[in-house]
Amino acid sequence: MRNSQQRLGLLADPAAWPKPQALQSIWRFHAYKMARIFLNVGEGRKVLGSDMYDAHHYVAASYTDLLVTDDAGFQATCEAIPNPRLKVVTFEEFVVKYLGVAKG
Fold this sequence. Notes:
By secondary structure, this protein is mostly helical. The protein contains five helices and two strands, in the order αααβαβα.
């Protein structure tokens, strides 16, 4: 925030700035990116062209109650984030559990 103080219109006193935890979008973006780093470096997963899009989808979903995806790589990254505050489900789970449509 210090580097973007003027652009963000923050007051001169850092004590008056919002706490980082209150900045949901930034917090979740960095959480997602750290999980990707863990998976790429720690587990040797490939860096994909879709990784940045996935990060933005995860951030946008932070304003919802539920994220629905069948993308296994995206799900794995979401699962690598400690203390997630976003529930991630597959499309099938969404249809059955949340819409009440029976499997058939």
